[in-house]
Amino acid sequence: MQQILIGGAVVLLLCVASSKLFYRLGVPSLLIFLVLGMLFGSDGIGGIWFSDFELSRQLCSIGLIFIMFYGGFGTNWKAARPVIGPAVAMSTLGVVLTALLTGWFCHFLFGGNIWQSLLIGSVVASTDAASVFAILRSRKLGLKGGLASLLEIESGSNDPFSYMLTMVMITFLTGEGSGGGITLMLVRQLAFGLALGGLLGLAAVFVLRRINFEIDGLYPIFVVGVVLLGYALCETLGGNGYLCVYLIGLIAGNNKILHKRSLVHFFDGVSWIMQIILFFTLGLLSFPSQLPSVILPGVLLSLFMIFVARPLATFSILSWFKIPLRQQLLVSWVGLRGAASIVFAIYAASMGLSLGTDIFHMVFFVALFSVSVQGTLIPWVAKRLGLVEAESSVLKTFNDYEEEGSTQLLEYEVKHGSRWKDQTLMEADIPQEILVVMIKRGGEVIIPKGSTTIREGDVLVLCGKELEPLLQQAQTEQNPS
């Protein structure tokens, strides 16, 4: 037991140290953690023999649950709203087009059953949210035209649709479903995923806004419980659990809830731990000695996706939204393949299907090639296309963004015409970046909570930036009550 704990501690510390070393260089964390897993694996210096696809699938599924939840939870809906149409189109129709084009190329490259080729296309059809987020954050890459939000929404929400396509292809190959059965499965995946995600997300927001748990540490535990319940219940009913947890995160992250900032930071840490476990496990599962046999087809497949499949899917969709060509070129380039594709390859490999090719190591190589080449060149491509917006921070598109600069501390008296009167702090339309430090009511000082009701005559002590316009607006807009 002690040896396992020591080994786990060493791995975590190495992951943190290497991330610190390569983060500023723009090297995606995925690549670092995968390489460390390979070094510790059976063909590496660690010599750890690990080839359990089923255990890997279970571990990686748990990791994806929290990575996808945080993808929704950390996305700023206000920043994403203007580009939600093209982003959703890319995460749905774009995945289908990429899968079909890549499947056709795999059929040409490998021959064999067309469904086997379409399975490979479905597995690699989604883009990697973790790598996209990490590159944008590490390089503080502010992009023009709302491109950062578009890429975040697309990469965060397209994994569930790639997962659905993968399950459809596996069902065809195993002969377990007919055309009608496949249609029913797709309907159930979408219906239960959207319905349960929406209901549980709204229920979580309702509880977090109205119930005081007394102990701050219980709030993240409650959210973890909701996320796990959503995934497990949705999968049990035949729905798409990944779509469910992403929607829960999107709803909870874009509503006013108690301790939201601390929740964002907590799940940011959880997401990083899950990424380390997931990527390290995938690296550990791989056998570098088997990679040479897939290098040539892997390079050809990667180049086809980078220069043919992804651009065709991108241009055919974003042209309808009249998005400029330069922006389409950048979206096309930021089509990184990553952890989700490798996990879906594990799903296929664990089914015992005879595919005529080593799908796991093939997809593993494609992800390595994509992240190391495309990922590293994203800042350079963005600058060459003239799409870097130096005065704007990409961090504004995430829910954990905090403005830089000096803060103000002001007192505001709630008068009869204030729109905040008789509202709870949670219900009052107070921007999230404004903190109510205390409330003076008569001779009493009240430590505010989300359920605290603002009364006429209260003096609110506010902390934030540019408070005067906010206070003028709060006083001039009349409270309908």
Description:
The chain has 481 residues and is mainly alpha-helical. The protein starts with a helix and ends in a 5-residue tail after the last helix. Helices cover 64% and strands 5% of the residues. The longest helix is centred in the middle third of the chain and has 32 residues, at 179-210. A hairpin with a 2-residue loop joins strand 2 and strand 3. Strands 1-4-2-3 form a four-stranded antiparallel beta sheet, with no helix packed on it. It has helices at residues 2-23, 29-40, 53-73, 77-80, 84-110, 114-123, 129-138, 147-157, 159-174, 179-210, 218-236, 241-253, 260-285, 292-318, 325-333, 339-350, 359-384, 467-476, and strands at residues 408-413, 435-441, 444-446, 459-464. Helix 2 (29-40) packs across helix 13, helix 9 runs antiparallel to helix 10 (179-210) and helix 14 crosses helix 17. It has 18 helices and four strands. The protein is globular, with a radius of gyration of 24 Å.
In short:
This protein has 481 residues and is mostly helical.
Ordered list of secondary-structure elements with their pairings:
Elements lengths: L1 H22 L5 H12 L12 H21 L3 H4 L3 H27 L3 H10 L5 H10 L8 H11 L1 H16 L4 H32 L7 H19 L4 H13 L6 H26 L6 H27 L6 H9 L5 H12 L8 H26 L23 E6 L21 E7 L2 E3 L12 E6 L2 H10 L5
Antiparallel strand pairs: 1-4, 2-3, 2-4
Helix pairs in contact: 1-2, 2-13, 3-12, 3-13, 3-16, 5-6, 5-8, 5-9, 5-14, 6-9, 7-8, 9-10, 9-16, 10-11, 10-12, 11-12, 14-15, 14-17, 16-17
